[in-house]
Amino acid sequence: MEKEQNQNIENSDSIEKEVSNDEPLNNLDNTEDETKEINSEQKILELEDKLARTFAEMENQRRRFEKEKDEAFEYGGFLFAKEALSLLDNLERSKQILSNDDSLKNSETLKKTLEHFDIIYKDLISTFAKNNIKPIESLNKKLDPNFHQAMMEIENDNHEPGTIVQEIQKGFTIKDRLLRPSLVGVSKKTHNKDEKNQENMENLDEK
Fold this sequence. Notes:
Elements: H1 2-75, H2 78-99, H3 108-130, E1 133-135, E2 148-155, E3 164-169, E4 172-174, E5 177-180, E6 182-188, H4 193-206
Parallel strand pairs: 2-6
Antiparallel strand pairs: 1-4, 3-6, 4-5
């Protein structure tokens, strides 16, 4: 009887040892599971971040494409419009040449020709305006480097210095872009003869 009791005690001790030996393995398994969960969460976060970046880049590309498409539609005729301005220039030159021809002055032929030129000119300006191509206002305006290009200075005391008093070539814009600047002459103060003589005397004294 005692032997059986002793044997039972030994068996229970061995079972307890086995259980205690299994506990570290269970802890290791739990740690591995937790590590796997953390790694999975990190991968999910990384994937979400990559997806967000990809969508943002796609959206930026779409906006750039839309902008380029709109600009191409709005300004696609920019070069054509710029070249078409030469028609106006040629009309102006032809009018000037005919007007200065002594053999045609005060003739009915010259009058009718110039009238036809004016009609063509107005039609061209109207066509340009329908396509958002408009002339730049220049005369009696202050020089604006964004729209005007000064070609000469003209002595004129009736206007403030820097005022446009002559338009050599008309400039144009297409929508909000400069198609070509106006070529102009701007006013400057006249020098009195006394001032000029004084400057000449000072120059002579220096020599």
